[in-house]
Amino acid sequence: MKKKKKSVSYAKWGYIFILPFFITYIIFSLIPLLDTIRYSFFEYYRTGIKEVGPNFIGMKNYVSLLKSDMITYGKNTLIMWVIGFIPQIVFALLLANWFTDVRLKIRGKQFFKVVIYLPNLIMASAFAMLFFTLFSTNGPVNSIMLSAGFIKKPIDFLGSIFGTRSLIGFMNFLMWFGNTTIMLIAAINGISMEIFEACDLDGCNSIQRFFYITLPMIRPILAYTLVTSIIGGLQMFDVPQILTNGQGNPDRTSMTLIMFLNNHLKSKNYGMAGALSVYLFIVSAILCFIVYKLTNDNDPDGSKAAAKAEKRRRRRGLL
């Protein structure tokens, strides 16, 4: 009689190896998230040495936030994100397309990639301090323009709404367009060269090749870039906080939602801070869902569209 060999299952080792991640996630992410949601339903703050709460007040924190300047700060955040993101994605797509085009024969690609990515390695605080010095009333930018005769008196960049928002958007663009460019280069390099060769044989020019081949093929990476950018934009804090010294000047037009949240945390108003965090989570989820729906291709081969067209033809024939 031959003895049956015992089958060895290695499935448990997979669970063992991923267990540390789930333990870390539960302790440092899930539990704080649930605790934040719990705090949002309580009145919990400090005035001096007196501590009030936690007292359950239901949805009052959420109602109070809607009556506050939260919507205005949300608009500020959106405007500064758009100022930074639009040039970021345009420049990233342009550079990624150039660096991956074999016909251009660009030399020193690795060097340029490193240079493009370098701003991403600089801390936001250093960037903010640098721009604060450069664009101050007595800074080098004003001095150069006065010496060249372009202006007659110094420009108060940080004293105007347009100037402050533009500087914040420009800094976000400089810090993140390199990271976006590298990801898009990797996405375009993942496209089969046979597709581009067939495109060239069909007589497509560079513009047609970009819009009809490159963009549709890198749609998943574009969706990922847009989602992460939206989340990062809603969490915009360090650059405007340092550049405006936490005041959101001028006239709080550069105050972001996270700066507003930080003010509640400073005043120990944990209930309002928790409610604002929940609002941010909901807005992020809705925006990411919209982006996913807009960029997700459920019919890559066109079979569903063809079937719908055939049904329409049959209905018209019956009528």
SSE arrangement:
Elements lengths: L10 H29 L2 E6 L2 E7 L3 H8 L2 H31 L8 H13 L2 H11 L5 H9 L12 H29 L3 H9 L4 H12 L1 H16 L3 H6 L13 H10 L3 H26 L7 H16 L1
Antiparallel strand pairs: 1-2
Helix pairs in contact: 1-13, 2-13, 3-7, 3-10, 4-7, 5-7, 10-13, 12-13
Protein name: ABC transporter permease
Family: Belongs to the binding-protein-dependent transport system permease family.
Membrane topology: Multi-pass membrane protein
Descriptive notes:
The protein is mainly alpha-helical and 319 residues long. It has a domain at 70-254: Orthogonal Bundle (MetI-like fold), CATH 1.10.3720.10. The protein is 71% helix and 4% strand. The chain has a two-stranded antiparallel sheet. Helix 1 crosses helix 13, helix 2 (60-67) packs across helix 13 and helix 5 packs across helix 7. It is globular. It comes from Butyribacter intestini. One of its GO terms (biological process) is transmembrane transport.
Short description:
The protein has a domain at 70-254: Orthogonal Bundle (MetI-like fold). 71% of the residues lie in helices and 4% in strands. It has helices at 11-39, 60-67, 70-100, 109-121, 124-134, 140-148, 161-189, 193-201, 206-217, 219-234, 238-243, 257-266, 270-295, 303-318, and strands spanning 42-47, 50-56.
